[in-house]
Design brief:
Layout lengths: L12 H14 L11 H8 L3 H14 L2 E4 L3 E4 L4 H25 L2 H20 L2 H18 L3 H20 L4 H19 L3 H35 L1
Antiparallel strand pairs: 1-2
Helix pairs in contact: 1-3, 4-6, 4-7, 4-9, 5-6, 5-8, 6-7, 8-9
């Protein structure tokens, strides 16, 4: 973690802290399995321990951190089975979101999603992964919002929270990242055409490809750890 001091507005402080912590977890500045050091995080985020602990509780409810009795909190590290099960559910939620969005999206919502898409392409051109990912995530959330089903949105947010860090890292492979951008272009085309079936399929394919990359990365990391342990 960096020693840079991050100023946070006083209003809704624990929510602001949770947002910053969520970014740190997603962007791997706090690694899976790592302990959340309250003293260090208080200094980095320039807040007292009280809002920090409230923020950690929020992230525990989202499934991003695990609270251990008398041992503080650690960043959740998903097993391969966890990943497969979660992506299986997430693919269905994304596909349903896309199908309904294609049927219900307004012209204004489409314009906003297209604007974010062009910003995301600019971030991709710069190879600015954090900016790219934030825009990518915002696009998926906007598609979900365009479906106009609050029950779907709540469920989507709960499940998606568990996968944010893994989805971020899945773009670190150049060819896989390029393929993901192509799929986003297909999403925009399907939305413009109001083609519900095409939108459903491209999101199913998109999540399947993400899942495969994530599982491949998990297995590679596990093999590396095993090799180091044998050395």
């Amino acid at each position: 973690m960096t020693a840079e001091i991050i100023a946070i507005p006083r209003a809704a402080l624990h929510e602001q802290v949770a947002h910053r912590l969520r970014q740190m977890l997603v962007e791997n500045r706090i690694a899976p399995g790592a302990k959340l050091n309250e003293r260090e995080l208080s200094e980095v985020l320039n807040v007292s321990r009280t809002p920090l602990r409230e923020a950690i509780k929020m992230l525990a409810a989202e499934g991003l951190v695990e609270l251990l009795t008398n041992r503080g909190a650690i960043a959740v590290e998903l097993t391969e089975a966890d990943v497969l099960n979660t992506f299986e559910v997430m693919a269905g939620l994304e596909a349903q979101s896309g199908e309904l969005a294609a049927q219900r999206i307004t012209d204004a919502e489409l314009v906003e999603i297209k604007a974010m898409h062009f910003e995301m392409l600019a971030a991709y051109t710069r190879r600015d992964l954090p900016a790219y990912y934030r825009l990518n995530s915002a696009i998926h959330s906007a598609i979900n919002a365009a479906a106009k089903n609050p029950v779907l949105t709540i469920t989507y947010q709960q499940v998606n929270a568990r996968l944010q860090a893994l989805r971020f890292r899945s773009n670190q492979d150049g060819e896989k990242w390029k393929a993901a951008v192509k799929e986003h272009e297909q999403m925009i085309s399907a939305l413009e055409a109001r083609d519900a079936a095409a939108m459903r399929q491209v999101l199913l394919d998109h999540l399947e490809h993400k899942r495969d990359v994530v599982v491949e990365q998990l297995r590679a990391a596990k093999n590396t750890a095993t090799d180091k342990a044998k050395a």
